Amino acid sequence: MAIFGSIIKSVIDLKETLTPEGEAVKDQEEVLTRLLKKARNTAFGKHYKFDEILEAEDVRKAFAERVPYFDYNKIDKQWWHKYHDGEEDVTWPGKPPYFALSSGTTGKSSKRIPVTDEMVEAIRKAGIKQVSALSNFDLPSDFFEKEIMMLGSSTDLHKEGDHKEGEISGISASNIPFWFRSYYKPGEEIAKIDEWDDRVQMIAENAKNWDIGALSGIPSWMELMLKKVIEYHNLKNIHEIWPNLQVYASGGVAFEPYEKSFNALLGKPIQVIDTYLASEGFLALQDRPDTHAMRLITDNGIYFEFVPFKPEYINQDGSITEDAPVVPLEEVVEEKDYVLLISTVSGAWRYLIGDTIKFTDIERKEIRITGRTKFFLNVVGSQLSVNKMNDAVQELEDKFDIRIPEFVVAAKRGEDGEYYHYWYLGSEDKTNDDELAEALDEALKSANKNYKVARSKALKGVKVTSIDPNLFHEWNAVNKKKGGQVKMEKVMNEEKFTEWEKFVKEQKAVN
């Protein structure tokens, strides 16, 4: 029996038993109060009179009334850019030692999001919560002696003046505690390799030397890494080289669209655990089996607010209108979509992270990520959110017994002057695009009454083109980069879609 693993498992079980489950609303009130007190003497805190907010009878209500909504462009233009001009105490005391680079899902230019020491510590605490939650899963003692493959961005952070820059996964991995380093793979040397393809090649070459028990990373890039290891060693599945692989901690996007293609790389089932680590912080984690829902972390330096996800509150660029109402945690409704706002120990205030979520269990404060505000397709009144698209694509997978890990869609006029939804589906399986288009259309009609109405009026139909899934990865490589936190955009405007179609045509001509 694995004695060391048994000790670790016992410690985790004990910690989970002794750690009290806080009251989420009370936790959130305390988090907001601490945030306001800490930042009251910053330029932002003085401008929005945090001292007066703290004296209000209802601090949360006063905060919502006094401080406006911010997306990245707005807060960077008005506040965060001052850090790069040498100022300090801008939206958080001092100057952030890190900036997280995030190209998100739109455009080539990177966002530069401040990451304070307090945020690094909050992410570390959230990671410990995730490890502690493993006591709720049926894992053997020897699992806790296995190594963990964390497939993020490079940990070779770039020095820029008085701070370092890199993606949040690289910043987090560069700050892992010393006691964890013997478990951490691919190890510091390989993790510092900046080029994705070179890093994955080194992982493949060294894979036989590791006893991997768990994986962590974004599904699309994890798939590519596993395929590379399988190809390099001429394997049938990844369990032939990592027989003790039992857990995959997915993050960044919903796992379901990748489930079928991911499972095809395994030799036996593994436990998939969802996590919600964004460039702005570690927001939620899955702490029990038999669900893909994640519990909001309400006591760890992030204050949450929720805007109902309705067309009248969403601007064309994915931001929210100034008059959009906010719903506090105690008033949210299950199975309703909300736009997520956060205020954090990194000096983000009422910040539009860009994700939409729904609560699946209010008592447990469990959520699911349902999409992105910029992935809301409403050109002709279809009001199509990305979770509805994901559901429809999964129906195609089941109906035709195929795998579709990636897709992109745009609404534009066809040669006949009518509006169509143009879909590109990434699949290695043989398909009939006309049959897929018909089935996709019917699935969306059944799931979304607004789409069904649009199809009877301004939306003429659906057109499908099946392509090699690798084209999506190559598009990211050309427009952003490979690996790390990079996620494929699901919805494009006409201008970007024209570039996409040109890219696909050129790639097909080359191949």
From TrEMBL:
Signal peptide: none annotated. Residues 390-495 form the GH3 C-terminal domain. GO terms for molecular function: acid-amino acid ligase activity. Pfam families: GH3, GH3_C, GH3_M. InterPro entries: GH3, GH3_C, GH3_M. One of its GO terms (cellular component) is cytoplasm. It comes from the Bacteria. Residues 297-363 form the GH3 middle domain. This is GH3 auxin-responsive promoter family protein. It comes from Christiangramia sabulilitoris.
